[in-house]
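@channel anyone free to eyeball this complex?
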Amino acid sequence: MANTIIGSSITIDGEISGDEDLVIQGTVKGKISLKESLFVEASASVEADIEVQNVEITGKVTGNIAATDKVELKADCRVVGDVRAPRILIADGASFKGNVDMDVKER
Amino acid sequence: MAATKEGFSGSGDSTIIGPSILISGKLSGDEDLTVRGRVEGELSLTKTLIVEPSGIVKANVQVRNAIVSGVVVGNISATESVELTREGRMVGDINSPRVIIVDGASFRGRVDMGNAEPRAPGERPATRPATRPVLRTQPAAVTRPTTIARPGGKPLPPAAPVIASKGDKGSDKPAPPPPPQPVLVGEGGKKKVLLKTKKK
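replying in thread with the prediction:
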């Protein structure tokens, strides 16, 4: 567990940036930009524009998501916003509203 | 540092801000927070903030406990304690009933532990309220007119403080003879009395 964890009772209103994996269990509003993977867990609520390499969403996300590699919407997630990534996976049971753009191999 | 880590290891799932992470903005929560990266802006927790050696916090911090082994620039207001460990560096004001600054820590700023009242409510409060108000009003009444009459000069004030200090010493133990004897301080006098009774 060397990566960063935002616990379930934590609220962040602002900007998060970094070069490592980030796990969100709490609430984040604003902007997230990472060079690694983002995990939005079931208890999490994210209201932010997201720029990452990979993102895996099990919780709630409102905002635009841009990934250089992959976006994965797991079952039970709720996502509202545009998704842009070369690989986008939407699992059975996921709820999603927004545009999907997979036509971006280079960013 | 090992001791502090052990002390707070009980809470398993606390939030960790990794070394390459920068958070700027407002951060609040009800759990322990360990900062190994950077946090800028505002930080408020109902539990413990741990700033590890690699951690940098540039924020106004409101927490219950704070343990600083990294860098903090900003004010910390803690409801319980603030500890600057050997590796801790801080610039800013600390407002907390308990402040611990360990040898090796570097700190620049103000410390406010609040009123000294909350500590040791056990022994003396019974005698204090009865004696103090009466004795304090007298010196205050003496000093005030002089200072008001001569706001610029210093000739008269020296006389007033002497009276005031006598009054304060006497206030601790009202039993020994009246203030006029300056050498006989409350506790010393009582010890002598006890020795005499034992010899006899």
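from a first look: The CA atoms of residues 53 and 68 of chain A lie 5 Å apart.
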